[in-house]
Amino acid sequence: MTILIAEIGQNHNGDIGLAKELISAAKTNGADIAKFQFYDARALFSAKDNPWYDYNIKTELSYRDVEILFDYCTKADIEFMVSSFDVERLKFVESLGVSRHKVASRSIADPDLINTALGTGKEVYISLGHWKDEEFPVFSQPGDAKYLYCVSKYPTEIEDIKFKSVSFDRYDGFSDHTIGIDIAKVAIARGAKIIEKHFTLDHKMYGPDHSCSMLPDELAELDRFRKSIEPSIN
CA dihedral in degrees (96, 97, 103, 104; nearest 10)? Predict the structure, then answer.
């Protein structure tokens, strides 16, 4: 069955209490994985021409925050995952015992990060929103790479999705930034084995990703949809 990833990302707004609420809502409404982003904000983001720079700083998770969220996911019986944006942070989450790793689109040009992830021997989900070549990237470290079709626009307009040229026999899944869940449903029906989509409790919350995130009832509908069509696509 298709794996559903509730991409909480920065939608916790720097509030660990809200992060826990999002984890609980993700579990209740059918997600398999609750996912976060783990970065050094000042190293990753530029203050120049970035209206969200202060927000990026505020939503940076500390190592202790990640430990707390990992433990909370474990108790809630939902898999914890992060996009780590440097090798040090990736090694830290590996030491916690995560089941797999995620490489964000913007990290596709960081071979050290990706090779370190592949070297763990675990599945590594790699979004290709910033990858422009027709052939998938090749890394020096062999491993279990799972590639996600992705358009790195927030939100992504429906006309920017080019499923006609995308085979989910080739791609393993879809990282979705469109508004609503219709396109995610199309991807599932076309054979996507992984769906990653931003998740929020309220579209009106402050932050760049809330408006194009799915709500709990949309996640629940996506869960029902994947279960209902599974017999027809397997």
Answer: -50
Crossing angle for the helix pair 87-96 and 63-76, to the nearest 10 degrees = 40
Q: In order of start, what are the domains of the chain with their CATH numbers?
A: 3-233 (3.20.20.70)
In this prediction the pTM is: 0.96
Q: Which of 35, 33, 4 is nearest to 209 (CA)?
A: 35
What are the residues whose beta carbons fall under 8 Å from the beta carbon of 26, sequence distance 6 or more? Answer: 6, 8, 34, 78, 199, 219
User: How many angstroms separate the CA atoms of 152 and 17, rounded?
Assistant: 29
Task: Identify whether the C-beta of residue 22 lies closer than 8 Å to the C-beta of residue 219.
Answer: no
pLDDT tens for 14-53 read 999 999 999 999 999 999 999 999 999 998 898 888 899 9
DSSP string, 78-122: -EEEEEE-SHHHHHHHHHHT-S-EEE-GGGTT-HHHHHHHHTTTS
Report strand pairing: 144-150 vs 173-176. parallel
Q: If you ran DSSP here, which 8-state letter would residue 211 be given?
A: G
